[in-house]
């Protein structure tokens, strides 16, 4: 139910420690804006929760008034699941605290924290959590969706490091889910998405990570098929301390890329190496990058992990219009290679479809130039000050397969149907929770008229 004219938020405003922002506030548009500018929803109010008490109060308000509710972490959800037209957004973004316990090598992270907050705090102790590849993504939505990034081959998905969560359930109860207490809830949170409750704090086991080897290899775009075929053989056989993201991209107009390839469409792999830090080791591991085709550019450097995490921030800034699709894949079959090859030349990129504003007219907060650059001097200096004490390396846990092999109790119907059959597993016991949050996003995922993009014929129907 949307807010009626009679719905006022005065009582909520009085009860919260955080602010309640409504269309009458001058910063309403700023507060409701999210990463994907394709989404333009107008909640009746945004409750900026400062802690678990505010979360409980906001949930109670939603229950009593029957208003639709959406939960916002870092605001990176592609279809804008964190906003609901005419409803109430429970905004966790004031809760960006992180507390590291170096003794137990764990970190407690506020429900609205972004990856930059987490990386900043853990890096000082030579520790980290495997998470996404952009520093502005929310820990909340990313973790609840599984979470993968540069450390995934070495340390697994983000949920492989999630050991506990404080959750306010729909009826206002605050529970801590661990593998001992409410283990089915913890299971559900590990990749089941939102709607099981509002997570006010995540507890992660930390992994040793400080300086990583970073490499970028770009090949001419017309070698996409050869590179992809090579990548699908090379990476699974490579040490798990090596991660590689394949992409077809437009080369950013800045260092470290040489000028002749600026702005050109290329295919690329961005590598992250957490293995032997001995100089030259990464170069050895990647000595084979010319096997598929001679690279147009190949670059390696040691880098503080948080610097790697910010590499794409400038290239993909908030405020552009995006459309993504994702799926689970076991491999890269020839058909997929052919599709990549066919579309490689025509893929739109931020540099193509949204000419970056320059000079005086640019909106505030937008960088003048977006580049994949080296870490800033400040970061490097900070990194040098905080060299970690030597520690023993731990064995690498297996990667994505752990998610697929995890025993699967049946979850809440709609969510479970979104998972591929192999993840769903046989229907066993239902998950009993004291109540589910209503799913406002159910009919909110459509794009606005004129923005609906046709489904690619190559995309198989979802596993629903
Ligand atoms: C530019 C970009 C880069 C990305 N890169 C990666 C990547 O490298 N790896 C990866 O795995 N994913 C990546 N993603 C996907 C991203 O993880 C998901 O979109 C995720 O949902 C974003 O989380 P958020 O908290 O920022 O989003 P929000 O839009 O704030 O939240 C999305 C949904 O998550 C739920 N949610 C969020 N926080 C909480 C909470 N504390 N308690 C309960 N529910 C909550 C809510 O249901 C909410 O509707 C990327 C997305 C973008 C836009």
From TrEMBL:
Domain of life: Bacteria
Molecular function GO terms recorded: FAD binding; oxidoreductase activity
Bias (Basic residues): 359-371, 378-396, 419-430
Disordered: region residues: 347-464
UniProt cofactor(s): FAD
Keywords on record: FAD, Flavoprotein, Oxidoreductase
UniProt domain FAD-binding PCMH-type: residue ranges: 39-209
Basic and acidic residues biased stretches: 455-464
Pfam families recorded: FAD_binding_4
InterPro entries: FAD-bd_PCMH, FAD-bd_PCMH-like_sf, FAD-bd_PCMH_sub1, FAD-bd_PCMH_sub2, FAD-linked_Oxidoreductase, Oxid_FAD_bind_N, Oxy_OxRdtase_FAD_BS
Stored PROSITE patterns: FAD_PCMH, OX2_COVAL_FAD
PANTHER family the record matches: BINDING OXIDOREDUCTASE, PUTATIVE (AFU_ORTHOLOGUE AFUA_1G17690)-RELATED, FAD-BINDING PCMH-TYPE DOMAIN-CONTAINING PROTEIN
Family affiliation: Belongs to the oxygen-dependent FAD-linked oxidoreductase family.
Name the UniProt record assigns to this protein: FAD-binding PCMH-type domain-containing protein
Organism of this sequence: Streptomyces haneummycinicus
């Amino acid at each position: 139910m949307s807010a009626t004219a009679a719905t006022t938020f005065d009582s909520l405003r009085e009860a919260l420690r955080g602010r309640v922002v409504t269309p009458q506030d001058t910063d309403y548009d700023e507060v409701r804006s999210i990463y994907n500018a394709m989404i333009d929803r107008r909640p009746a109010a945004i409750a900026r929760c400062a802690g678990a008490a505010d979360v409980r109060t906001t949930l109670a308000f939603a229950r009593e008034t029957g208003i639709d509710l959406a939960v916002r972490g870092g605001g990176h959800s592609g279809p804008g699941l964190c906003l609901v037209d005419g409803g109430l957004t429970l905004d966790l973004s004031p809760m960006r605290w992180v507390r590291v316990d170096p003794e137990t090598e764990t970190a407690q992270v506020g429900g609205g924290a972004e990856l930059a907050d987490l990386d900043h705090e853990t890096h000082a102790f030579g520790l980290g959590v495997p998470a996404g590849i952009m520093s502005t993504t929310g820990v909340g939505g990313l973790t609840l969706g599984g979470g993968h990034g540069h450390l995934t081959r070495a340390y697994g998905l983000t949920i492989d490091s999630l050991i506990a969560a404080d959750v306010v359930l729909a009826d206002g109860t605050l529970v801590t889910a661990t593998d001992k207490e409410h283990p089915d809830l913890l299971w559900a949170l590990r990749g089941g998405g939102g709607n099981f409750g509002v997570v006010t704090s995540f507890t992660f086991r930390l992994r040793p990570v400080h300086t990583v080897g970073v490499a970028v290899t770009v090949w001419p775009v017309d070698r996409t098929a050869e590179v992809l075929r090579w990548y699908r053989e090379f990476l699974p056989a490579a040490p798990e301390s090596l991660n590689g993201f394949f992409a077809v991209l437009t080369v950013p107009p800045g260092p470290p890329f040489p000028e002749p390839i600026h702005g050109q469409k290329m295919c690329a792999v961005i590598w992250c190496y957490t293995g032997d830090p001995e100089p030259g080791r990464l170069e050895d591991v990647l000595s084979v990058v010319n096997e598929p085709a001679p690279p147009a550019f190949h670059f390696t450097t040691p880098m503080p992990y948080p610097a790697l995490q910010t590499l794409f921030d400038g290239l993909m800034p908030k405020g552009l219009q995006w459309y993504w699709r994702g799926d689970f894949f076991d491999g890269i079959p020839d058909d997929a290679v052919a599709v990549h090859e066919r579309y490689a030349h025509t893929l739109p990129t931020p540099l193509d479809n949204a000419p970056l504003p320059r000079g005086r007219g640019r909106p505030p907060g937008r960088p003048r130039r977006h580049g994949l650059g080296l870490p800033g001097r400040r970061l490097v200096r900070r990194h040098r000050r905080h060299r970690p004490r030597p520690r023993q390396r731990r064995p690498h846990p297996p990667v994505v397969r752990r998610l697929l092999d995890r025993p699967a109790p049946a979850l809440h119907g709609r969510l479970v149907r979104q998972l591929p059959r192999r993840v769903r597993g046989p229907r066993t016991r239902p998950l009993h929770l004291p109540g589910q949050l209503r799913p406002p996003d159910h009919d909110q995922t459509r794009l606005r008229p004129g923005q609906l993009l046709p489904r690619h014929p190559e995309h198989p129907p979802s596993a629903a």
